[in-house]
Amino acid sequence: MTLFGNDSKAKQGSEMSFLGHLEALRWHLVRCAAVIAVLAITAFCFNDFVFDTVIFGPLRQDFISYKVLCALGHKLGAGDVMCLEIRNPHLQTLSASEQFFNHMWISFLVGLILGFPVVLWELWKFIRPALKDKEIGPVKFFVVVASILFLIGICFGYFLLFPMSYNFLINYQVSSSGIVQTNNTFDDYISLISTMTLVSGIIFELPVLVYFLTRMTLLTPKFMRKYRKHAAVVILITAAIITPSPDVTSQMVVAIPMYLLYEISIYVSKYVVKKYKLA
Questions:
Q1: Which of 37, 205, 230, 242 has its CA 20 to 30 A from that of 115?
Q2: Which residues form the domain of 225?
Q3: Which residue has the higher pLDDT, 34 or 9?
Q4: Do 80 and 126 sit in the same domain of this protein?
């Protein structure tokens, strides 16, 4: 028996037992873990590039997002409202192990993000024998779409959501007396950037989630259209919280992509209902 001898694709055309499915799933998970581990080890070795260029990029004044936002603000006639100024970019560590464990955590996240398409591909290979011939094409297509949406969401969180949120939080003052000073720690910074980028990547999977929920008749385009106004309010509130100023232009930069994602999800749900005649 070879390492790949239990691939679920080889099981097509024959009925598998419960233990057989578990064995097939095990090898799919092993391959996913191997890919993530290789990518994580590579990221661990290239720590200068990963941290100085990527992770600490939003701490530099010449970060591309700041240039684009400032130029956009001037182009829209908003002046310097959207120009962000980095204050005290230095980070502190409060324990001897803080840098090492965060180095490992970021390396794992890099492996997970870069290996996400492989994880989806292995998942598709596992469920493929249970699909009908006419279902294989659409599911394979959505594996590609889900990977692209996840990476777009990661970029949205890294280049837009996190820089704006971080600069708002780091400059926030509960009073004007100056008694409270914000000295950000390395651990807090890593926690914030990793959480916001991952959450953004997951949020951008909304059209894929809507697709499968509609297929299971748990969601309909009629329901989404009915609560469109409620969704818009939630999106605007979210944008108002994470943007660095009360300026409407800054809020729209964040709110518009999120709302477009919701509208795309409605069309996805409508497509599923029409194609599979679920109405």
A1: 242
A2: 207-279
A3: 34
A4: yes
